[in-house]
Design a protein that fits this description.
single chain, 419 residues, mainly alpha, Glycosyltransferase, two-stranded antiparallel ribbon, 17 helices, globular
Length: 419
């Protein structure tokens, strides 16, 4: 495969428009049919959003890929009648919390829908940037709600349209107040559009397919800016920044990984450089991750580092095991932290990837701690960025067991009991 120069756009609009067969890969199959040999037999879990992706992917597949795509899609769809006739499979650890968490999440989503402005933005900190509407959009998707049908269609499409309208000629998604620079919000917006791609109506799909190559190209160019050894491979607040931090870099890496799984021609070298950057910010002695070094903000960034490594091919490695064990000892320290909601989001995603006792202990603590803190209007108020951000981030953490966002699918072949 030809490696693209990071100074150019990533792929063509045509390539971004047509989901590749690799989207129906082993890990993507999790969002279509989760097939695992459980103790009580084979378990099947099918999601409507994933089936829609398969059907739309078939309709847009190029002729030379059609035969293989039909084979994969037929296998996936063969399980659909039986799976759709059943209630969605619930993670065993989550079973005891489902009756409480489900209405809490729906109340939160209803709150987000109520407070959304007509243009897709929100009141409060960063609500008019591309980042917060993207987080809200992912919150809707994380519960299985779609841009084409259901109670949150209008709200979801407003999020998408607001972000698309914010893109500048350089490719950056920039609007309103985005903090210290546009890259943080840009990375989150790019991740959201990549996850929504394939679920939207044809007109919006065309717009997303035109926007994503430019957005991804900007991320690659920002990574390629000359940096010292400590910052090489990472990202910071500005496209031209010559330093990096792990927080901004985590969102950028997830955007690239999502797009690559969705068929974008993301160079392997870009993913590898980002992973190596994270390696340099992990403590050798205990496995925790830092912010600009190895010793700062471990309580809220170790989950981020762990999740990124898990989703980039390092599941079960010594690095992820040490990070997971560190989190198991220290996760309660995020309470009342300045970046508590951010930390909880990444911890939940990461511990779910690890599974077993790590996820069990974290999930029980998370639901017991944060369900009582939900306000009567359905919101959660965060220290770092107010109610819209706090509510979206809490929904994204709570809905991990629903497994609706393709980027965060868990490999169901993992023997969790061994952990």
């Amino acid at each position: 495969m030809k490696t693209l120069d990071p100074k150019t756009e990533v792929g063509s609009r045509d390539r971004m428009l047509k989901p590749r067969i690799t989207r129906i890969s082993r890990i993507r199959m999790g969002s279509i049919c989760n097939l695992s040999n459980a103790a009580n037999g084979e378990r099947i879990h099918t999601t409507k959003s994933a089936l829609i992706r398969v059907i739309r992917g078939f309709l847009t597949a190029t002729a030379d890929r059609t035969a293989e795509f039909v084979f994969n899609a037929t296998i996936a769809l063969a399980f659909a009648p039986a799976a759709l006739a059943q209630a969605p499979a619930i993670d065993p650890v989550f079973a005891e919390w489902h009756a409480k968490a489900d209405p809490a999440v729906e109340n939160a989503l209803a709150y987000l829908q109520r407070i959304q402005r007509a243009d897709g933005s929100f009141e409060g900190p960063y609500g008019d940037s591309a980042g917060v509407p993207a987080l809200v959009g992912m919150a809707f998707l994380s519960k299985g709600h779609l841009p084409t049908e259901g109670p949150y269609t209008v709200a979801l499409n407003r999020c998408i349209d607001f972000i698309l309208a914010s893109q500048k000629p350089t490719g950056v998604f920039e609007n309103g107040s985005a903090g210290n620079g546009p890259m943080y919000a840009h990375n989150i917006a790019t991740l959201f559009l990549s996850e929504a791609s394939g679920m939207v109506d044809p007109q919006r799909q065309s717009s997303i397919s035109a926007a994503l190559p430019k957005a991804l190209g900007l991320i690659l160019r920002a990574q390629a800016v000359a940096k010292d050894e400590n910052s090489r491979g990472g990202w910071r607040y500005q496209p031209g920044s010559r330093d990096s931090d792990t927080s901004c870099s985590g969102w950028a890496l997830m955007a690239l990984r999502s797009a690559k799984l969705n068929g974008a021609a993301i160079p392997d070298a870009a993913i590898r450089a980002a992973v190596e950057y994270l390696h340099r910010h992990q403590q050798e002695k205990d496995g925790s991750f830092g912010y600009t070094g190895r010793d700062d903000h471990a309580q809220t960034l170790t989950g981020m580092g762990l999740l990124c490594l898990e989703l980039c091919g390092e599941h079960g490695s010594d690095r992820t095991k040490r990070a997971a064990d560190w989190l198991l000892r220290h996760f309660r320290e995020i309470s009342n932290n300045q970046f508590e909601f951010y930390g909880n989001y990444y911890n939940a995603q990461a511990m779910f990837q690890i599974g077993g006792r790590h996820w069990q202990e974290y999930a029980n603590w998370m639901y017991a701690t944060y369900l009582p803190k939900q306000a009567a209007d359905g919101s959660w108020d965060s220290h770092e960025a107010g109610r819209t951000y706090g509510t979206a981030m809490m929904v994204l953490a709570f809905t991990v067991p629903w497994r609706q966002l393709p980027i965060y699918q868990r490999d169901e072949t993992v023997d969790e009991d061994a952990r």
